[in-house]
Design brief:
The chain is α+β, with helices and mostly antiparallel strands. The chain is 28% helix and 36% strand.
């Protein structure tokens, strides 16, 4: 499975036959993304899909020279577990 970045919808997606896991974000300004929510269908939880979505969003922010606001509780928890990405937090 590959994470897709849907620029129009402001969403990172992991589609499958079982449904779609997603991480939504809001563009705050030219340098900042607010990571607002993650969702994984109940039957797909526990497989690391949300972590893959957050990793993709953080990698995107780093490459684009952007900072993130971790509004989503899962994203905040992820960042606590991965302090090496703390420099991305606005």
């Amino acid at each position: 499975m590959t994470v897709h970045h849907d620029l129009k919808a402001h969403r990172f997606r992991l589609p499958s036959e079982e449904g779609e896991a997603r991480l939504d974000y809001r563009v705050v300004d030219a340098h900042t993304l607010e990571l607002t929510s993650t969702y994984v269908e109940p039957g797909r939880r526990g497989r690391g899909l949300a972590a893959r979505l957050v990793r993709a969003a953080l990698d995107h922010a780093r490459v684009e020279g952007k900072r993130v606001i971790p509004a989503c509780s899962y994203v905040r928890t992820y960042l606590l577990r991965h302090p090496e990405d703390g420099d991305l937090v606005a």
